[in-house]
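Late entry, evening session. Most of the bench is empty. Finally got around to the prediction I had been postponing all week. Sequence below, unchanged from the version circulated by S.P.
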Amino acid sequence: MAAGRHLRTLGWIRVVAILQPADPGLIGPYKLLGLLGSGGMGRVFLGMSAVGRPVAVKVIHARLAADPEFRTRFRVEVAAARKVSGLFTALVVDADVDAPVPWLATAYVAGPSLAEAVKDRGPVSATSLLSLAAGLAKGLSAIHAAGVVHGDLKPSNVLLALDGPRVIDFGISQAAETAPLTQAGLVVGTPSFMSPEQASGQKTGPLSDVFSLGAVLAFAATGRKPFGPGPPADVLERVVRGSPGLDNAPSEVRPLIERCLAKDPGQRPTAAELLAEVSAVQSALETPSGPTVPVPARRRRRRPLVTTSAVAAVLAAAGAAGYVLTAAAGPQPGASSLSPMAAQMAASPGRPARARPPAPAHPSATAPPRITSTYTYQQGAMVYFEIYYSDPGHHAEGFGFVGVNGSDWPEQHYSFSNPASGIVEPGSVAFPLDQGCGTGFEYTSTVKAWIYDAAGHRSRPVVIHLACTT
């Protein structure tokens, strides 16, 4: 393996390759710190702005930059990509399409790719798949609304950020379609995740991305490429005429995947329609009478999956964040329930966050809210505790907490409409506590937290342990 800077945190290794003598030290206003990766379009560097903002700088290969037609298409795509906004994409922050070697800078996303996470932990649960599908559908909706077709959605182009998946490299792969396909090393799309129309050389559009989304979900659900291994020509033949391998895909999610993988684009849902379908299935799973999440017989050894921003690796900056993708095997004794996507930070040994027991069997319309899982993560000196909750009666009003087991946090209450420094989203709330992380004065806290409704009724409380992870 090429020389690089290694950062190991609780079993996960993140490598940023050291710049080579031939590599540029500066692209536009960004100082380059290391190489994040490379592909058919170019190379991606970790860069830093003058004010310390980390970015991912994509530098186009010189052979493509020399093609006037490619430059024209690249200019159009970058202009469209600038319009893309949304929580589930990596936003474009800067670009120079007229430079001798064109480049594009996007917000840096700290987190493993879906490909890395599934390789490390295996297939994911139905709940995680639904959260992944929702995030990707939102990301594609934002991309398509800007008039951009991704064209190369695949597990390695999905990053698992702390607050949900991020779709990266949108629009840029589409720019390559006008470049000569015979150029050595140029790959337009990825066979295992192409749509049939893309594999056949036909016109592609937003529904082509939906097919790729279905293939990505199939990979996350089974741990395998949906159209099998083998030479690209064989894989493409199966993409066009064969059936995907969806054995062991959770029954709750399989119909959604199959709809996305319809050979006829007209039979696929749009990204917006898929999001609505996912929301409906999520609601059904939250209902006690709804289907349950199956647990496959095959179990993998569960080990923490944690990543830390490469910026921390290079600059020894504080504020590292951790990520864990929920595996289909189910929770281990003593481990906390994980957030639906890439959530639970690996706790320090012997000090895990703890999930609450399941809700009562027969909640009524007036039942108080119930906490379904918890999650902790670190940002700078702060450690956030996050509570996921179900609200059968739709009367949840706020949250509260108090220090326990020697922690001296006084009892506090906050309404969702005025959460102080908390972060409130549908079905979840996060709140920071200063643990002195990275200051040399780290300490831990244990709190008991709850959700309360309009009548003042509290959910069954949860006990959460907060500790710095770096």
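Two things to note before I forget:
The longest helix spans residues 126-145.
The mean pLDDT is 75.
Will write this up properly tomorrow.
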